[in-house]
Amino acid sequence: MTIAQSTRERIIDVAKERFHARGYADVGIKEICDNAHIQKGSFYHFFPSKEDLALTVIDEFAEDWANGFVAEAFDPRLKPMERIDYLIDAAYFWQKSVKEKNGKIPGCLFGNLALEMSTKNDVLRAKLNAVFTKAKARFKETLEEAIDSGEIKPLNTELTAEAMLAYLEGMILLAKSENDPEVLYKLGPAIKTIRIESREHV
Amino acid sequence: MTIAQSTRERIIDVAKERFHARGYADVGIKEICDNAHIQKGSFYHFFPSKEDLALTVIDEFAEDWANGFVAEAFDPRLKPMERIDYLIDAAYFWQKSVKEKNGKIPGCLFGNLALEMSTKNDVLRAKLNAVFTKAKARFKETLEEAIDSGEIKPLNTELTAEAMLAYLEGMILLAKSENDPEVLYKLGPAIKTIRIESREHV
To answer: pTM higher than 0.90, yes or no?
Structure first.
C-alpha cells in the first residue's frame, strides 16, 4: 500500500465510525483530520468536500456489508428463507457487539443517514437509495428462490422484498431508540410473516 | 391567551416544523428566535436550553398526534383491524400533503430524532422511547380487541404490536429516502400480515 492509499484509508476509517455513531452534521472535517493525524490540505487532496467523503464512506460500507455478513447470510447452501433468518441474526449480533464495546447501539448507517439527510441533500439521498435498492434486490432474489423451491407460497416478490427491508430498518430504529439489541432478537423472526400478494394470487 | 403564552407557542411552532424537517443539530436557537420574532433572552425565559425545547416539542407533537389523526384512526366504531388501515392511510396522506407543500417528505418526527439523537442524548432518547411505548400500547389494545371479537386468530399482542410499530417506522424511513409517499400506499396494507405467535399458540 502506498502512503497516499493509507492516508486515504485512514480518513475513510475515521469518518466511517464517526458518521455511523453520530451522524453527518455532527462530525466536522477538522475532527476527522485530527483523528486521522493529517493536515486539512491533505484531506482536500483526497476529497473535495465532506459530501464526497460521505459518498465514499457509504459505498465502502455498503461493499463491506455486501461482501461480509450479507454474503455470509445469503449463502446459497442455506434454504432461501433461512438466509433471511441468518441476516437478522447477523444484524442482531453486530449491534450487540458494538453496544458491548461502546455502550450504545449505533443502528444502521444507511437508515441513520437516510433520515438525517434525505430532506437536505439529494446527492446523499440518491446514494442511500441505491444501497436500499440493492438490499431489496437481495431479498427479492431470495423470495423468488423460495417460491421456485416450494418453500413459500407465491407472492409479490418485489413489494414483499421492500416490505422486509422496511421491517428490518424499523426494528433497528426501535432497537436504537431502546438502546437494546434484544429488540432484533424478539421481533426478527416475524420478518418471514410479512406477505404482499401478487394480483394473480389474491 | 396572554402574551407570554403566545410567545411560548410561537417558539414551539417554529421549532416543531424545523426539527421535523431538518433534525435537532441543524436548527439553532438563534434561527428559532429570529423566526419566532423574539429576543434570545425571551427564549431562555421559557426554555432553559434547546434540549428543554425539544422535550416540549416531542410532548406536544405526540399529543397533537394522539388527539388528532391517531384518535380519528382508532375510532371505536371501526372494526379493530380497520383502525390500523386507517392509521396507515392517515400517515400516507399526511406525508403526501407535506411533500406537496414543501417538496420533501419529512418522515416521522419521532423516528427522525430517535436515529439522530439516541447515541448522543439519553434524555431525548428516553422521551422518544416513551412516545413509542404509548404507540405500541395503542396497537396492543387494538390487537386484543381484534382477538376478542374473533377478527384475528390469537397471537402475542405485546410483540406483534411492537413489530407493527417497527414496520410503520421502517416504511416511513424508506418513503423518506425515496422521497415518495407511495411507498406507504404500496407497503402499508401488509402491516396486518405481521404475526408473532404466543408461546401457547405455537
So the answer is: yes
